[in-house]
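Notes, Module 5: Reading structure tokens.

Key idea: the token line is not a picture. It is a compressed description, and you learn to read it the same way you learned to read a sequence, by spotting repeated patterns. We will look at two proteins. The first is printed below with its tokens.
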Amino acid sequence: MAARITLVGMRGCGKSSVGRALAERLGWPFVDADREFELREQQSIAAWFAQRGEAAFRAAEAELLAELLQRPAPWVLATGGGVVLLPGNRQRLRAAGGLVVYLEAPQAVLEERLARDPGRRPSLTGRPLAEEVESVLAQRAPLYREVADLSVASDRPLADIVAEIVAALPSAR
């Protein structure tokens, strides 16, 4: 069985929820990269992002990803939505992320989920939510697909998503 599962996808696609449920099903530890970042920096990502900017955030995120991927397996890792933007991160994910799963959600679903949780995630473009989601999704979707071993629709019941990922593990075949 693959001893590592890394979840990638847009903000609001369900990485944290799916990751927790998947880890529980497998009996593995769950690591949320965003939560790890906030614990390390002792402030929210939104506050850190506002103070230091996106470039500094992406550099710090890359350093954290490298560390997380070196943790002893098994684990399920939920990454930040923009982790795929840096080529080095995409290389790390392909090399050490185990089974990398892209959680795909339609734009309308992402907008609805993000609208329910407004202040926790920083705006990436300063534009209205619908425009931001459309723009960011267009930029990132090809990068998620580039690193993913498996793409899973995440606008379904949680149990169905977890079952599909578990069925894709090598020992499940």
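Here is the second protein, with the sequence above and the tokens below, as before.
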Amino acid sequence: MPRQDPYRQFRFRVEIGSIKLGFSECTFADTTTDPVEYREGDELPIFRKLSGLTKYGNITLKWGITDNMELFNWRQQIIDKGAENNRKDMSIILINEAGEDKARWEITRAWPSKYDPVDFNAKGNEVAIETLEIVHEGFKRVS
């Protein structure tokens, strides 16, 4: 069987509803399920570990500022009208060296909770970077 090298982390694509932009960084969320300790009164003095609530961490996107205002406008909709009617499903797709989609995570009911505009510095020559933090109600790896 031929060797299978792991995929590289720098080739990815993010789709947010109909928004398809390039991002320089995507800090993906983690998922944790809290353990709940439980013990009946007549059991040995050892706790059983039951599964509690599952939590999903936030997703952070960073990109070089352009004329495109779609992500800022989405954030402004949350400020103006709230999240309930402005949630979007999104996908994070890992791409191999040949440009083929190799892994895909589907994120449900996402909305931007924080927008960090670019910091300016007249002494530097770096690309101006914007940041958007996205909360959501869960994700699944589908491929």
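Summary for the second protein:
- The helical segments are 70-81.
- DSSP finds one helix and ten strands in the chain.
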